[in-house]
Write a structure and sequence with these properties.
This protein is of the alpha+beta class. It has a 4-stranded mixed β-sheet with strand order 2-1-3-4, with helices on both faces.
Length: about 120
């Protein structure tokens, strides 16, 4: 199986569910606390390619910071990427990242299907 990385937020119950499932089922993954170790612009763009989505689909629009910064008014991808880089709490979670593809693991019940797509 390819190397997998879990972009994880320890304060998120869905992220913890995904990590617990992977740990309990013996999957060897690296865990990235993306709040403590935010992605670079290059890494974020690579993640978007692997997810096959735009930054508009990756952003957590329910976060207070999203509303406070009025990010809903941003229409240019690069400007929104820059805002996300400054505020990584806006990144959907958890995200399971492989060598060529990635998946947002929501709802957590999808994790078994997602794991099978990496095999």
């Amino acid at each position: 199986m390819q190397k997998l990385e879990l972009w994880h937020n320890i304060s998120c119950s869905k992220s913890n569910c995904a990590k617990d499932f992977l740990d309990q089922n013996g999957f060897e993954i690296s865990v990235r606390d993306y709040l403590a170790n935010p992605p670079s612009k290059k890494e974020l763009k690579e993640l978007l390619k692997k997810l096959n989505i735009s930054i508009f689909d990756l952003v957590r629009t329910g976060e207070e910071i999203y509303k406070d910064l009025k990010l809903e008014n941003i229409k240019e991808q690069d400007k929104l990427i820059d805002a996300v880089l400054l505020n990584p709490i806006l990144i959907q979670r958890p995200i399971l990242v492989g060598e060529n593809k990635a998946f947002i693991v929501r709802p957590p019940a999808r994790i078994e299907d997602i794991i099978n797509s990496f095999i």
